[in-house]
Amino acid sequence: MNLFDVYPINDITIVKAKGSYVWDDKGEQYLDLYGGHAVISIGHTHPHWVKRIEQQLEKIAFYSNSIRIPLQQQLAEKLGNISCKETYQLFLCNSGAEANENALKLASFHNERKKIIAFSKAFHGRTSLAVSATDNKNYIAPVNETENVIFLPFNDEDALDACFKKHSKEISSVIIEGIQGVGGINVAEDSFLKKIRALCDEYGAVYIADSVQCGYGRSGKFFSHDFSGVNADIYTMAKGMGNGFPVAGIIVAPHIKPKHFQLGTTFGGNHLACAAALAVLEVIEDEKLIGNAVMIGKYLRDELLSIPELQNVRGRGLMIGFDVPDELKDLKKNLLWKQKIFTGEAKPNVIRLLPSLALKKKDAEQFIEAVKEEISLLIDK
Ligand SMILES: Cc1ncc(COP(=O)(O)O)c(C=O)c1O
């Protein structure tokens, strides 16, 4: 049997990883500023994470949600404290798309409405409702086409106002990434998130903060939406939550009440996933990784801003993007194949940095040197 060929891939086989480094099957070392697509939060194979998962594996890996799983409560408490959302309620699932699917569905159960506001360049996942709220026609199958999702321009307060006025009590939820990831590192303005909060309050809609990529400390705050100073009703999270172990969740404000059987999952919140997620939060706290993301992120942005060939350097914390002009279009490729550095991208010309929150200064320096070297070589050509 062959694999179903859905991705273009780099011809590299990674067999080992540690911290911000990965190694291929030929023993070549790479610096990882991509984090396996923003997933590696505390560093590859962090010893505390490995130990906690191993110890849990010896005891019990899985039992269904029909019994008490105290690890879930421990995770809820720890997450509540670190995120300063102590009064919120945690529902655990397995992936980012699933988290958004559950959030959109819960909002609709809550206010018994159908319409969703999403934004240009949004990416919310591949499952049916999440993909309907994703602004890319190529991902939306005919069966996912719906009139219930309204797309508005990102950061456009007037368009949002007008939409709420027009549809008023039909709007169930507004879903927005605090920093768009797949869309190319576009930061939601604080005033825009405040406006969403105010309009959701006025019209009884639910504000959903998709924090799948920009959450879990990556931006320099636990949720990037926190920069605005207002709370969302539901935060969705995945990626960094398990540092590579598949675990995801939503946290739900206290005014949205749970009803039995509205949401559910077989695998979500299993013992092993909770152990991995707890290990991640313990390391984020012990090693002060959110502070590190602020510091190293600032260093990277300042250095990138000082490189005149790069355009529109942007982002927060360790979620950084910049535009690469056409004459440097091989930069990403050269960083990988010549400098042995993984970076992310966004179409058509954005390089995205999504490293571990534990990225060291010396690694950031290595990256900046590599970028400068490759730019000068490309210019000399
Ligand atoms: C903002 C955002 N939401 C949702 C998703 C979907 O997450 P998953 O691939 O875990 O389903 C992604 C994935 O890249 C994402 O970046």
Please write out the topology.
Blueprint: E1 14-18, E2 21-24, E3 29-32, H1 35-38, H2 47-59, H3 70-83, E4 89-93, H4 96-111, E5 115-119, H5 128-132, E6 149-152, H6 157-167, E7 171-177, E8 179-180, E9 186-187, H7 190-203, E10 206-210, E11 234-237, E12 248-252, H8 271-286, H9 289-305, E13 311-316, E14 319-323, H10 331-337, E15 341-342, E16 344-346, E17 350-353, H11 361-380
Task: Provide a brief overview of the structure.
This protein has 381 residues and is α/β, with parallel strands linked by helices. The protein contains 11 helices and 17 strands. Helix 6 runs parallel beside helix 7 and helix 9 (289-305) runs parallel beside helix 11.
